[in-house]
Amino acid sequence: MAEPSRHDTAFEARPAARALVTIEGLPRDRVTALVAGEVTEGTLTPLRRSLTTALESSAGGLDLDLSDVGFCDVAGLHMLLELRALAAARHRSLSVTAVSPPVLRLFRATGCAARLIGADPAAARSLFVTAELRRELARTGASWASGPGGPGDCLHICIDGETATVTWPAAVGDGGAQKALYEAVASALHRAGLRSVRYRTASTRRTPQAESVRAALFGPRALRRSRRV
Q1: How far is Cα 198 from Cα 222, in angstroms, rounded to an integer?
Q2: Which residue(s) pair with 35 in the sheet?
Q3: For the purposes of burial, counting CB atoms within 10 Å of the CB of 195, is it exposed (0-12), middle (13-18) or buried (19 or more)?
Q4: What pLDDT shows up at residue 89?
Q5: Closest Cα partner for 157 from 185, 116, 132?
C-alpha cells in the first residue's frame, strides 16, 4: 500500500483541484497524472474531464499521484470510483500510487483503500518524476495553473527512454514566470534521469517563441544536450 506523502507547505493556499501534470510512458502503456488542490463537488467537472482524457489516451490505464490533494470529499471519492469503473469497462485500470494524509484517511474510513491504492513496482520511476516536479512546481508556485482547468491546460510530458518531450499549456504566464517554469521542469527531469528534454506548445510542435525561450534559458550547451538520445 502506498504511504502518505509529506504535505507540501507551498500549496497551503490550495485552489480547486486540477491535474497539473500528466506523464506518458512511465510505465510505457500507462499515463500518470499529478493532481493538486481540493477535490470537492464544486470542482469536479474540469478535473473529471482532464482525468478522463488522460485515461482514454492510455493503453493500459491511469496512475494518480494525489500527494498534493489537500482535501477530498465524498463526491470526489465517487468520481475516482466512477473513473475506476470506466477504466475497467475499457479493459484498463486506475490506480492511486501516492496519497496525501487527508485522502488516505478518507480512503480508509470508507473502506476504499484496497480498491483504489495500487502498489505496482513499475510505477516507481513515474513517482520519482512526479516527486521532483512537485518540489519544483511548489517552489515556483505553479503559476500557469491558476486558470480554468481543462484537458489542454496541464503540462504534459511524454517519456521515451531517456528523452522527455514537454508540451506546455497555451498560456504559462508572463516571461519571468515562463522562464522559472522552464527552468524548474528541466531541472526536475534531468534529476530524474532524463538526458534529453524537448519542448513544444499545446497548439504546435515547435514555435520560434518556444525555441528562443529555450535558447535563452539553457544556452548552446544545453541545446546540444537536449538533442542527445
Answers
A1: 11
A2: 19
A3: middle
A4: 96
A5: 185
pLDDT given for residue 55 in this prediction? 93
Residues 81, 47 contacting (CB under 8 angstroms) = no
- What pTM did the predictor assign? 0.74
Contact 108, 4 (CB under 8 A): no
On the 0-12 / 13-18 / 19+ scale of CB atoms within 10 A, 217 is: middle
- Rounded to an integer, what distance in angstroms lies between the CA atom of residue 153 and that of residue 113? 29
Give the mean pLDDT per block of 10 residues along the chain (229 residues): 49 67 85 90 89 92 91 95 96 92 95 86 75 77 48 76 82 62 82 82 49 42 39
Collapse the DSSP code of 156 into the 3-class scheme (helix H, G, I; strand E, B; otherwise coil) and give the result: strand
Which grid cell sits at 80?
475516482
Give, in order, the Cα–Cα distances in Å from 171 to each of 29, 117, 201, 228: 28, 33, 9, 28
DSSP assignments along 17-46, one per residue: -EEEEEEESSSTTEEEEEEEEEE-GGGHHH
DSSP state of 16: B
What pLDDT sits at residue 172? 54
Q: Exposed, middle or buried by CB within 10 Å (0-12, 13-18, 19+), for 229?
A: exposed
